[in-house]
Design brief:
Layout lengths: L4 E6 L6 E6 L2 H4 L10 E7 L3 H9 L6 E7 L8 H13 L7 E6 L1 H13 L6 E5 L2 H7 L4 E6 L2 E8 L4 E5 L8 H18 L1 H15 L3 H21 L14 H10 L7 H18 L5 H13 L12 H8 L12 E6 L2 E5 L4 H14 L1
Parallel strand pairs: 2-9, 3-4, 3-5, 5-6, 6-9
Antiparallel strand pairs: 1-2, 7-8, 10-11
The structure holds nicotinamide-adenine-dinucleotide and glycine.
Length: 364
């Protein structure tokens, strides 16, 4: 299991960066050493600011620190909110040497990263993820974006941070529902690349649900190792990186259908991963037993394994065709070959997809 503090490297040539993982890491890691200029803009939200903003500011006493506190929620991950960050940057006379720091979950992280990519054509930024989902997924790999009313993460850029600081203590304040949603992305790594980790998760899920610090640090570290390896191989998703989107095409359809207001991302991904696994089984790849293990583990984490009751198969098809993995009008999906190996493919039967969607929508 992980020791108190560990480091994982994302190897991308001159855009390489470290991920620090540990207890009390906001205090322990030398954040200031990743900040070149004198000025910093911390981007956070109304929920996280009272919990961690002062702690972070306390590590930056030799910098000129501004902050912007955004409204909380996926429904605010849009161009209007992004403009509030630009207002603060321009109003505060921030120049090209300014560093942005994202203090929060994936919503804050994705918006801050995109603002950093755009402001004066690019300023440095640091990720300090405070949800499990952001610690194991969204803070690593440089995908940044905002949503559009017609589709999730439709406007964005690949833009890597200078460093990712994961303070696992921040998970102690995370509501259960958010914690469980993060576990969906942890389970994803087991499903797509690491069957041994999947089995470890099955064996240690109770410890994780109790938020045992050692078990959590280990799960975060292994997730980051897998993500860093995939991103290093395929930074801009020309191929293998797309497997990180297991269940996401289905999941994004759910989120868009609900206008980003009901299920949270990890919940939608959980139901989506089951639908992808069902399609993998019906396509003759994944053994039925692996599908059962997947459902069982997700259920143990209080995650949904069927879509929202008010969604129909046609809703999925309509919304899935807007996915970023659609190329030349052809839907591509991440499917499982077996537990621990995924592929991106357009080689599945539309009849099978319809069968899976109809079965899933009638089961919920
Ligand atoms: P989130 O950012 O909305 O955070 C969830 C909730 O937890 C929010 O209410 C937030 O204020 C609160 N919160 C955050 N940290 C807390 C803490 N320590 N204590 C108490 N409350 C806390 O949601 P999320 O699940 O972190 O991220 C979801 C977003 O991430 C989605 O927009 C998704 O598209 C994006 N995402 C991006 C990538 C990527 O590669 N860039 C990958 C996966 C997901
Ligand atoms: N979360 C998917 C990716 O980073 O590619």
């Amino acid at each position: 299991m992980a020791s108190k503090s560990t480091q994982v490297q994302v190897s991308l040539g001159d855009r390489s960066y470290p991920i620090f993982i540990g207890s009390d890491e906001i205090r322990n890691s030398d954040i200031a050493s990743y900040i070149g200029g004198k000025k910093v803009l911390i981007v956070t939200n109304e929920t996280i600011a009272p919990l961690y903003l002062e702690l972070l500011k306390g590590q930056l006493t030799d910098k000129q620190v501004d902050s912007v506190i955004l409204a909380d929620g996926e429904q605010h991950k849009n161009l209007d909110t992004l403009n509030l960050i630009f207002d603060q940057l321009i109003g505060g006379h921030h120049d090209r040497k300014t560093t942005l720091i994202a203090l929060g979950g994936g919503v804050v992280g994705d918006m801050t990263g995109f603002a950093a990519a755009c402001y004066q054509r690019g300023v440095p930024f640091i990720q300090i993820p405070t949800t499990l989902l952001a610690q194991v997924d969204s803070s690593v790999g440089g995908k940044t974006a905002v949503n559009h009313a017609m589709g999730k993460n439709m406007i964005g850029a690949f833009y890597q941070p200078q460093a990712v600081i994961i303070d696992t203590d921040t998970l102690s304040t995370l509501p259960d529902r958010e914690f469980h949603a993060g576990l969906a992305e942890v389970i994803k790594y087991g499903l797509i690349v690491d069957a041994v980790f999947f089995q470890w998760l099955e064996n240690n899920v109770d410890l994780l649900l109790q938020r045992d610090k050692q078990a959590l640090a280990y799960a975060v570290e292994l997730s980051c190792v897998s993500k860093a390896r995939i991103v290093a191989e395929d930074e801009t998703e020309q191929g293998i990186r797309a497997i990180l989107n297991l269940g996401h095409t289905f999941g994004h359809a759910i989120e868009t259908f609900q206008n980003y207001r009901q299920w949270i991302h990890g919940e939608a991904v959980a139901a989506g991963m089951v639908m992808a696994a069902e399609l993998s089984v019906i396509s003759g790849n994944l053994p039925e037993a692996d599908l059962s293990r997947t459902k069982a583990l997700l259920k143990r984490c209080s995650l949904p394994v069927t879509p929202p009751a008010d969604m129909a198969a046609e809703d999925f098809i309509r919304l899935m065709l807007r996915d970023k993995k659609v190329l030349d009008g052809q839907l591509r999906l991440v499917l499982l070959k077996h537990l621990g190996e995924a592929c991106v493919t357009d080689q599945f039967s539309i009849d099978h997809l319809n069968q899976v969607l109809i079965k899933a929508c009638t089961a919920s």
